[in-house]
Amino acid sequence: MITRTAEHRERVIQGALEAARWAPSVHNTQPWSFAVSGEEISLRADVDRKLRLGDPSGRELLISCGAALFTIRTALRCEGVEPVVRVLPDPDRPSLVATITLGEPAEPDDRVRAMGRQIERRRTHRAGFTDLPVPERLMDGLVREARIEGARLTPVRAPVAVTMLAALTQAAQGAQSQDRVLTLEVIRWARPPGSSRRDGVPAEGYPRTAPPTDPDFPQRDYAWRHEWGSEADLSRSASVGEVALLTTTGDTREQWIAAGQALQRTLLHACAHGVSAAFHTQALEMYHLREFLRHELCSDEYPQMIMRLGITFDDKESVRRSLAEMLQ
């Protein structure tokens, strides 16, 4: 039986939940809420923040919640506590993603500490990268990190495969841009300059017009029909960086959560080495394109994320809701 003072327990849990706020989520929707009972944290999916057109199955919502779950685990380990996790513990409460209980004391190793230091520093990049290469040794390390969480990260190095992924992203972005209702759902999460909202993508967080990469991986059009967004240097093409696919062997809710945990683990590890990530989920939101990708490039595994990894010196703003807003 572990004896903890109330003050110690409160400090550890408070720190873990403060850290979880910084997990990545689609359009920075932050689709989660928390509840605390004694030494147990409940992580719940906030379905009111789900993208009802872009993510009707809730796949991206649960990937986002999986990223928050891994962040809680990492923060607890940094405090010397081993978390005891139950994923989807109650079939009668489908929004209950996981429970995390404070377990045995455990001294964090250097890798856990390094990831913990990146939780509030990590940023999603929404443009091209510099020409500085991502070390191959680091990419191999990211592959191992994803595997620990039950997912596969595959660097896409064949030029023809990179071109195919870019073309699928272009096709999906083109189709989605013609759907006015879906576009309105996306720009609902684009914050105007000076906005006091603490969710969504800040105007400074995406370029008004992104410099094209070669091949071009288009970004979401957060600046649709307005002049928001940051200025970008359009005089030259930006580097694609290293393209990678995150996949799982199945496509269940458990595996979506596992994909989210693997995603955050790789992002924090990459950030600790000065590498950022840009995400491209447009093709994964269209059934036929996702199936084509699964069969042609993913060896029949299910693609959960298309990303580009690279080095950038941009220091973009990010915003998060207060913990009080997330607690139930």
List keywords for this structure.
globular; 2 domains; NADH Oxidase; 328 residues; Nitroreductase domain-containing protein; four-stranded antiparallel sheet; Nitroreductase/BluB; Nitroreductase-like; 8 strands; oxidoreductase activity; alpha+beta; 16% strand
Summarize the structure.
By secondary structure, this protein is of the alpha+beta class.
Structure, described:
The structure is a single chain. With 328 residues, the protein is an alpha+beta fold. It has two domains: 6-121, NADH Oxidase (3-Layer(aba) Sandwich), CATH 3.40.109; 136-310, NADH Oxidase, CATH 3.40.109. The chain has helices at residues 6-20, 59-78, 110-118, 136-148, 159-177, 180-187, 253-271, 287-297, 323-326; strands at residues 32-37, 40-45, 81-87, 96-105, 152-156, 242-248, 276-279, 302-310. The strands form two sheets. The protein has a four-stranded antiparallel sheet, with helices on one face. Strands 5-6-8-7 form a four-stranded antiparallel sheet, sandwiched between helices. The longest helix is centred in the N-terminal third of the chain and has 20 residues, at 59-78. The chain is globular and about 55 Å long. The chain starts with 5 loop residues before the first helix and ends with a helix. The model has no long low-confidence stretch (mean pLDDT 93). InterPro entries: Nitroreductase-like, Nitroreductase/BluB. It comes from Nonomuraea montanisoli.
